[in-house]
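Q: I'm writing up a methods section and want to include an example of the input and output format. Could you take the sequence below and give the corresponding predicted structure tokens, formatted cleanly so I can copy it straight into the document?
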Amino acid sequence: MNRQTLFLGCVIPLRFPGIEVAARFVFRELQIDCVELEGYSCCPEPVVLGIADHVLPVAVSARNLSLAEQAGADLIVLCNGCFESLAEAEAALRHDDRLRTSVSGILAGVGRRYDGKVLIRHFIEFLYEEVGLERIRRSLKAPMEMAVAVHYGCHLFRETGGADTLRKPQMFRELIEAAGARLVDSGLEQLCCGFPITQFDKPQALRERLGPKVRALGSTQAEALIFCCPACLNQFESGQGELKGLGIDAGPYPCVHLLELLALAMGMKPSALHLENRLGATKEFAECFWE
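A: Here is the clean output for your methods example:
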């Protein structure tokens, strides 16, 4: 359990470096040795590329998995979309001989091979199943004693082995509560944030997805919204400020990633999370409760 590889994906290092800082802090506090995944690429993106080409995205995922295999450590994935890409590629390679042959040929062309020896874990699974809630509670120095709401993100429900699709969302909720928070429900937790639609029609995404979700939060006592998907977090942070232009008077709500929440509860100062690049409400929220 103590030797793992972190798959950061693209959005976290490029848009939310504080999540990476928080992840490294949390795993260090929990005495988990994280090996660097040198030379990894995009997962790749789990929706659009798969429509254009079935084999190449799996080959890109397999190359990433081969790097973890070479490092001799299992893979902890910090992004819902990345987890879907990597886990579904691994499952496809195990069950589709023709696909495996095609992908092996592509990998050989870049001097790589993948033998299927890597265990892929969403960071929520790892923290819940391997670390455990009690160990996390014992690591807290400043528990979050307030009401918060949760946004799951569509890809958190994806399972490759026929498991309960609510398994990881329930783990997510219990991890938030382990940090000391009280969860309140808006009724729209499972509604997509609109991030995929934003790529084609941003006003529609804001009106039909983000707007209703933010309005629903107004009926709760939530002081912040907790995420486990960086793409969803980006949609909320960038989109809330544009809702008023569409006649939707709601928010803004502080947007906090679960790993940031755990890091703060374990004693990290808000100034270490690069919150100057985030929504003002998020920065003010963290500084109010933890500075």
